[in-house]
Design goal:
Shape: elongated
Strand content: 15-25%
Number of strands: 14
Number of helices: 12
Largest sheet: 6 strands, mixed
Length: 403
């Protein structure tokens, strides 16, 4: 065990500079969802040099990849999740340049022992965590069977506080387009011949506002009308709005979907329009915690010298597609500090922190921690069994989690 741990730690230290340079290069060339060509190519090419087999593109996303290395001995399968998309107009204000390089280094480091212990190590390059065009790719990895033989998944997110934190709960989010088709007519000359698609959108907007009175704090809804017509003297024959339907668990979200869908159908009936509601990118599911796997990570990152906050019961109303992975397999996404003072996420301060010396050091430490966490689980079948049982219980009881 001590020799295996030393092999992982030494490899991470000896190759740290390669992955730190990759993180800085991705930081200098920020790319938004579905356009992360440089980041995808850079990370996957490095893993190919490390001896991984590369599938690219993957899961139906042109900037996604799946890197894998399998031992000749049987054993578990771990996936290190790699994010690398930036925020439009801001850059790497969420630190995904660090996230992706951390997972790649962890995968390469853990690969050094996989032939001895058995099993398989993978790195999934998952673009578009921030949403956007063809975003939230982890949902595609889940739907397309990339998790069917996976035992657990890990990623570490750069944090905005001076201390680290363990995985946290968040809301599921369904991004939907609501469209109405009517019939155009001159608004003054022959309004009786028109079917007003804007009327239908206004009915939806107002009905959702009324619906909020009967919703619990497990739900958030917000949206905008992005196309309400083209000219005031023409009755609009087409309108489009975009909404985020959010809920603390996927079951509540499914119920909410039905309520809003009824509103859309009612507005269509009231105005004579044809209406539809459909997802415009992957539905993002809520994060299901696996505390027993977080506990293994906490042991490892603490042994490396970091301070970790106690796990919080608070549920964030934000969303991340890591939730889609967590619904299928035991998954953790702890945060590692890259700043000495608390800073806001998605900010210029975070952009600067994501290229700081502390961030580069955190990259290496987090890579060691998740590789060592994987080693602990691979070598202890009873621990893996407990983690899977823990996860199954959490999935079954996710609607019971208080908000």
């Amino acid at each position: 065990m001590s020799d295996l741990r030393k092999t992982i730690i030494d490899y991470a230290d000896n190759n740290a500079e390669v992955y730190q340079k990759i993180a800085l290069a991705i930081h200098d060339k920020p790319e938004v969802s579905d356009f992360e060509f440089f980041a995808c190519d850079t990370l996957s090419s490095q893993l190919e040099k490390e001896g991984f087999t590369i599938e690219k593109p993957a899961a139906g996303h042109r900037t996604a990849f799946a890197a894998s290395y399998k031992s000749s001995k049987p054993g578990p399968v771990v996936v290190f999740l790699a994010e690398y998309d930036a925020l439009g107009g801001l850059g790497h204000g969420c630190g995904h340049n660090i996230y992706g390089a951390t997972s790649a280094l962890a995968g390469a480091s853990f690969k050094q022992v996989i032939d001895q212990i058995g099993g398989e190590v993978r790195v999934y390059g998952t673009p578009g965590e921030e949403g956007g065009q063809n975003g939230s790719s982890k949902g595609s990895f889940a739907k397309k069977g990339y998790l069917s033989d996976v035992d657990f998944a890990i990623g570490v997110h750069p944090g905005t506080k001076p201390t680290d934190s363990l995985s946290g709960r968040n809301f599921a989010c369904e991004p939907v387009d609501i469209e109405f088709h009517g019939k155009s007519a001159h608004a003054a000359g022959n309004p009786q011949d028109g079917i007003n698609a804007l009327d239908a959108q206004i009915l939806v907007y107002n009905a959702i506002s009324v619906l909020r009175q009967q919703l619990t704090n497990r739900i958030r809804i917000h949206g905008v009308i992005v196309n309400g017509g083209q000219a005031p003297n023409v009755i609009p024959d087409y309108t489009l709005s975009k909404y985020y339907l959010r809920a603390a668990d996927i079951n509540t979200l499914n119920d909410l979907h039905k309520k809003v869908e009824n509103i859309v159908q009612g507005a269509a009936l009231a105005t004579g329009c044809t209406g539809s509601m459909k997802d415009y990118q992957n539905l993002v599911e809520n994060m299901v915690l696996t505390p027993s796997l977080d506990a293994v990570y906490e042991k490892e990152i603490t042994a490396l010298g970091n301070t970790v906050e106690p796990q919080s019961d608070k549920v964030s109303p934000g969303s991340s597609d890591v939730g889609n992975i967590s619904q299928v397999v035991p998954t953790i996404q702890p945060s590692i500090s890259i700043t000495d003072t608390q800073i806001p996420g998605h900010s210029i301060e975070m952009v600067k922190a994501a290229a700081s010396d502390k961030a580069l050091a955190a990259l290496v430490k987090a890579a060691k921690a998740i590789a060592l966490t994987s080693l602990d689980v691979f070598l202890d079948p009873q621990l893996l069994k407990k983690i899977k049982e823990d996860h199954a219980y959490q999935v079954e009881h996710q609607s019971d989690v208080p908000v």
